[in-house]
From TrEMBL, chain A:
<keyword id="KW-1133">Transmembrane helix</keyword>
<dbReference type="InterPro" id="IPR000701">
    <property type="entry name" value="SuccDH_FuR_B_TM-su"/>
</dbReference>
<dbReference type="Pfam" id="PF01127">
    <property type="entry name" value="Sdh_cyt"/>
</dbReference>
<keyword id="KW-0479">Metal-binding</keyword>
<keyword id="KW-0349">Heme</keyword>
<feature type="transmembrane region" description="Helical">
    <location>
        <begin position="29"/>
        <end position="52"/>
    </location>
</feature>
<feature type="transmembrane region" description="Helical">
    <location>
        <begin position="72"/>
        <end position="90"/>
    </location>
</feature>
<protein>
    <submittedName>
        <fullName>Succinate dehydrogenase</fullName>
    </submittedName>
</protein>
<keyword id="KW-0408">Iron</keyword>
Automatic annotation (TrEMBL), chain B:
<comment type="similarity">
    <text>Belongs to the cytochrome b560 family.</text>
</comment>
<feature type="transmembrane region" description="Helical">
    <location>
        <begin position="34"/>
        <end position="52"/>
    </location>
</feature>
<feature type="transmembrane region" description="Helical">
    <location>
        <begin position="110"/>
        <end position="132"/>
    </location>
</feature>
<dbReference type="InterPro" id="IPR034804">
    <property type="entry name" value="SQR/QFR_C/D"/>
</dbReference>
<dbReference type="InterPro" id="IPR039023">
    <property type="entry name" value="SdhC_prok"/>
</dbReference>
<protein>
    <submittedName>
        <fullName>Succinate dehydrogenase, cytochrome b556 subunit</fullName>
    </submittedName>
</protein>
<dbReference type="InterPro" id="IPR014314">
    <property type="entry name" value="Succ_DH_cytb556"/>
</dbReference>
<keyword id="KW-0479">Metal-binding</keyword>
<feature type="transmembrane region" description="Helical">
    <location>
        <begin position="82"/>
        <end position="103"/>
    </location>
</feature>
Length: 150, 137
C-alpha cells in the first residue's frame, strides 16, 4: 500500500460557516442526545414485546390495543418514533455524504430519506393518536376484552 | 520502507504502523465504526417496514394479525434475533462513542471490549428466551 492518506485531523478543506446556526453541530449533538434516550426507549420496547410473557408469540391486535389505549405507552411510542426516525435519517444522510460522489445523486438520495422520514413520522403519529381499539364489525375474539360486546 | 524499519526502536515501530491521532483507521476503532454503520443502516430499513406493519392496526384487526403472525414464524424468529443483536451492538457502541467524545478517548479500545462483553451478556439473556417463545408455539 503506497497511497498516502491525508492526516486525519487536518483542517476542513471548506471553511465552516461563520454566520448563522451551525446545523452540523446541532445534528452531531442530536445524534448523541437522542441515542441516550433511545437506549431506554428501545430496550424497554423490546423487553415488553419480546421478553415478557410469551414474547413475540403473544403479539396481536388485542395486545397492541392494550398498549395504545394507555397514555404511558402512547407517549413512549411517539417519542421513540420521532427520535429514532430523525436519528436514523440523519445517520443515513451522513452515509450519503460519504459515499455518493455526484451532486445530483446526493440530492436525490437525501430527498428520498427526508420524504421517508416525514411521511413515516406523520403516519406513525396518526396511528397512535387515532387508534380505535374496538373497530365496529370486527370479530369479538380478535378485539381486546374491554370492548363492548356487539 | 523495510530497510528503515529495522533501525527503528520498538516504540517507533508501533507508532509508525498506526497513524497517530485517529480512532478510525485499523483495529478496534475501525471495526467498531464499520459495525456501527452497518447496524445503523439495517435498523433504519427495518424501522421503515416496522412502522408500516404497525400502521395496519388502523386497517383492521385481521390485517394486523395476518402480518404480525409472520413475525412469529421460525425464520422470522431468527431474523428478530439478528435484529436485536444489531440494535444491542449499536446501542452499546453508541454509548461508547458518546463516552469517547465527552469523557476520554484514551479508553476507546478497552471500551470496545466492554461493549462486546455487554453484548454477549445481553444476548445470553435474550436469545434462549426468544427462541423458546418462537419455537414452542
Ligand atoms: C422484533 C422486534 C420488534 C417487535 C416484535 C416489535 C413490535 C412492535 C409492536 C407490537 C408495536 C405496536 C405498539 C407497541 O407495542 O407499543 C410496535 C410499535 C413500534 N415499534 Fe416496534 N418492535 C420491534 C422492534 C422495534 C425496534 C428495533 C424499533 C426502533 C428502531 C421499534 C420501534 C417502534 C415504533 C417507533 C413503534 C410505534 C409505531 C407507530 O407509532 O405507529 N420497534 N413494535
Ligand atoms: C439504541 C440507541 C442508539 C444509540 C445509543 C445510537 C447512537 C449513535 C451514535 C452516537 C451515532 C454516531 C453519530 C456520529 O458519529 O456523529 C449513531 C449513528 C447512527 N445511528 Fe444510531 N443510535 C441508536 C439507535 C439508532 C436507531 C434506532 C437507528 C435507525 C433507525 C440508528 C441509525 C444510525 C445511523 C444510520 C447512524 C450513522 C452511522 C454512521 O455515520 O456511520 N441508530 N448512532
Amino acid at each position: 500500500m503506497t497511497s498516502t492518506i491525508e492526516a486525519p485531523r487536518s483542517p476542513y478543506s471548506r471553511a465552516p460557516r461563520s454566520r448563522g446556526v451551525n446545523w452540523e453541530k446541532w445534528g452531531w449533538i442530536y445524534m448523541r442526545v437522542s441515542g441516550v434516550v433511545l437506549v431506554v426507549l428501545i430496550f424497554g420496547h423490546l423487553f415488553v414485546n419480546l421478553m415478557v410473557g410469551e414474547g413475540v408469540s403473544a403479539l396481536n391486535f388485542a395486545f397492541v390495543a392494550g398498549k395504545l389505549t394507555t397514555p404511558f405507552w402512547m407517549v413512549w411510542d411517539v417519542l421513540m418514533l420521532w427520535l429514532a426516525l430523525i436519528h436514523g435519517g440523519n445517520g443515513m444522510r451522513t452515509l450519503v455524504n460519504d459515499y455518493a460522489t455526484q451532486r445530483l445523486t446526493r440530492g436525490i438520495l437525501k430527498s428520498a430519506i427526508l420524504a421517508a422520514v416525514v411521511i413515516l413520522i406523520v403516519l406513525g403519529t396518526l396511528v397512535v393518536f387515532t387508534f380505535d381499539p374496538c373497530p365496529a364489525g370486527s370479530p369479538a375474539d380478535l378485539l381486546p376484552s374491554f370492548c363492548p360486546a356487539s | 520502507m523495510p530497510e528503515q524499519a529495522a533501525t527503528l526502536t520498538s516504540q517507533q515501530k508501533t507508532t509508525s504502523r498506526r497513524p497517530a491521532g485517529t480512532l478510525y483507521r485499523g483495529r478496534e476503532g475501525m471495526w467498531s465504526w464499520v459495525l456501527h454503520r452497518i447496524t445503523g443502516v439495517a435498523i433504519f430499513f427495518f424501522l421503515l417496514v416496522h412502522i408500516l406493519d404497525t400502521a395496519l392496526v388502523r386497517v383492521s384487526p385481521e390485517a394486523y394479525n395476518a402480518v404480525i403472525s409472520s413475525y412469529q414464524t421460525p425464520i422470522m424468529g431468527l431474523g428478530e434475533t439478528a435484529l436485536v443483536g444489531a440494535i444491542v451492538f449499536h446501542a452499546f457502541n453508541g454509548l461508547r462513542i458518546i463516552l469517547i467524545d465527552f469523557w476520554n478517548a484514551k479508553y476507546q479500545k478497552a471500551m470496545f471490549y466492554v461493549v462486546i462483553a455487554l453484548w454477549v451478556v445481553t444476548m445470553l439473556a435474550f436469545v434462549p428466551r426468544h427462541l423458546i417463545n418462537v419455537f414452542s408455539h
